[in-house]
Amino acid sequence: MSNLFMRIAGTAALCAGLTVSGAGTASAGNREALKKWTPEAMMSVYRIGSENLSPDGKQYVYTRSLPNIKENNSTSEILTGHTDKTGDAKVIVAGKKGHSPVFLDNETIAYISTEGAHAQIAVIRPDGSGQKVLSDFDFDVEGFLFSPDRSKVMVYRKNPLPNIREQEYPDLDKATGQIFDDLMYKHWDEWNDYTNQPYIANVSGNLSVSKEVTPVLGSDEPFEAPTKPFSGSEDFAWSPDGTKLLYSCRKKTGLEYAVSTNTDIYQYDLTTGETKNLTEGMMGYDTLPSYSPDGKYISWVSMERDGYEADLKRLFIMDTKSGEKTYLSKNYDNYVESYSWLDNSKGIRFLSNDYGLNALFEIDLKGNVKRIYRPDLADVTSFSGSGDVILFGQQSFKVPTDLYLLKKGKTNKLTVENDDFLSGFSQITVQERWMETTNGEKMLVWVVLPPNFDETKKYPAILYCQGGPQSTVSQFWSYRWNIRTFVSEGFIFVMPNRHGVPGFGHKWNEQISGDYGGQNMRDYFTAIDNVAKEPYVDKDHLGATGASYGGFSIYWIAGHHEGRFKALMAHAGIFNLEAQYLETEEKWFANWDMGGAYWDKDNKVAQNTFANSPHRFVDKWTAPILISHGDRDFRIVSTQGMQAFDAAKMRGIPARLVYYPDESHWILQPQNGILFYRTWFDWMNKYLKK
């Protein structure tokens, strides 16, 4: 057992009030002995997020977690710090006893406490004193949002859906079989046996929350709010006077839900109990509602077309008096992600990908956009702050997320938990290259070189195929696909922002739908062929890897690469598009991106998609292939990986299958994460370092 493994196994939760130092933990000495960046090292860095800035901009709160490989879990904590100091943060909630912190005022932080039988709303002061649980519901609070005057709080919980077996066959109380009459009976990584629903509770002067709750949705509305699986409290907003609540909801069930993205913004009036659909006739996703501080406008992010989950994310505002809607970001051609109104109500601050890097922007009420911060070879991950001070997270291929402060155009790094640890390892090199695609356009490609790179030597190169498919290859730090970890094994990574990713204009992003085996695949070959010309690349030992749509890409490349690659690896990939059309749960995605059903013989787009299914080209497979898949993956079910593995073995192609019975589309458990990297290294080293 390595020293690092033993150190992680023995790491205890930090005590409340412990000041954070650059070393991060008292056992940093064991970390410093390691010079090669490994999967175990990657699992030893703190994961920082959920940052929130105090109203006066002088303090901040955030969460951090640390995996424990031996115990196969992680610890988590809530910390606070002062924005005029670096590295002074201290733990105020330790031992995985709370999450989702937010400042209610400069001296009060609300969060979800997990100490009791049910998760409840609690408050604590920034110095760690005055901890108090406010609510006593007989259910777990999944999320909350206080009204501006704190007289009310919105909470949402999981409500169980009717169980057909229990209703129709109550005597079979030991039966485990489940009965479904409609779609969607599964979603991403869970069976759809519950729905998120919001309630409103009164709050007294001492912030105690009443047990009595009023449902926001009617008894005949078994809908989701927030929408599963990724939305949360950000899909709710209180009016400044606390009399109205906005929420995003797709008021559909069954097959209608499974084929539609038509999610609307609703306004619930607490005084009358009436609900109004504010986006009636707007047919795509409408999410992230908000009021301007002065109450004159309502804002939200909107997609135009029903069924297209990767449509342009547009920023809309509506005059609360006249009801007039304005497409505010009409002259901006990229996604508007998370956003916040400025304190003066004269504009909105938002996050967007800007030619491969996530950056901060502002837009005024006339639609004029200006970029206020774009890091150098790094991504802004999220931000908090609507005044002159901005708290934001920043990460890159090189380093995990840290928190920074942006004030008067200057940035200051605040968190230091991982600094001493990271300094003990050799660093990678990231190059930004622009290449001409086969259709005459320009494509950004990241080329990542291993530590201690020597241009007089030759290195095997790996083509990285992105998932999504509409997902930018930005300067991300991922624990599932950690580029620094892969490259530190002695590989060059080639990472193209091929057609079909956001950040390069709406046309570039749109191109991939209905063209799965087309231009984006030619982009992959352009990228690897270009880099393979470098004298330090071993062009006879090239590999390719990817997950999700990237896994599909690997299966497709396996039958079309014409000898380029000597080793392949696919995780959670689509192998058989016809099977995928019926196996996946979000039917709107399959209908839009594949073009329609495979049985619609008159649909030329759909027929072209299914004609390019990777399973049709197995006869041309030559490269050894490693395949991994999780059994709880309901987006791309595990039989896709099993089919690909069986096909390879029956063709006589060297292949290995790594099957995770308790993982989903993602690999989340620490030991399974280590297993993923080790099997990847073993495979690529075997075939690319001969």
Description:
The chain is an alpha+beta fold. It has 15 helices and 38 strands. The strands form 9 sheets. It has an 8-stranded mixed β-sheet, sandwiched between helices. It has a 4-stranded antiparallel β-sheet with strand order 1-2-3-4. A hairpin with a 7-residue loop joins strand 3 (73-82) and strand 4. It is globular, with a radius of gyration of 25 Å. It starts with a helix and ends with a helix.
Short description:
Helices cover 17% and strands 33% of the residues.
Q: What gross morphology would you assign?
A: globular
Structural class by secondary-structure content = alpha+beta
**Radius of gyration over alpha carbons?**
25 Å
Largest sheet: 8 strands, mixed
Number of strands: 38
Percent range of helical residues: 10-25%
Oligomeric form of this entry? single chain
Query: Termini, distance in Å?
Result: 28 Å
Count helical runs: 15
Percent strand equals: 25-35%
Uncertain residue ranges: 1-33
Major sheet strand order = 31-32-34-33-35-36-37-38
Q: How confident overall, as mean pLDDT? A: 94
Topology:
Layout: H1 3-10, H2 28-32, H3 39-42, E1 47-53, E2 59-68, E3 73-82, E4 90-93, E5 98-105, E6 108-113, E7 120-124, E8 132-133, E9 143-146, E10 152-160, H4 164-168, E11 186-187, E12 190-191, E13 194-203, E14 209-215, E15 236-238, E16 244-249, H5 254-258, E17 264-269, E18 275-277, E19 286-291, E20 297-302, E21 314-319, E22 325-327, E23 339-341, E24 347-354, E25 357-364, E26 369-373, E27 379-384, E28 389-395, E29 402-407, E30 410-413, H6 419-422, E31 429-436, E32 442-449, E33 459-465, H7 483-487, E34 492-496, H8 506-510, H9 519-531, E35 537-547, H10 549-558, E36 565-571, H11 577-583, H12 587-594, H13 604-611, E37 625-630, H14 639-651, E38 655-660, H15 670-688
Parallel strand pairs: 33-34, 33-35, 35-36, 36-37, 37-38
Antiparallel strand pairs: 1-2, 2-3, 3-4, 5-6, 6-7, 7-8, 9-10, 10-13, 11-12, 13-14, 15-16, 16-17, 17-18, 19-20, 20-21, 21-22, 23-24, 24-25, 25-26, 27-28, 28-29, 29-30, 31-32, 32-34
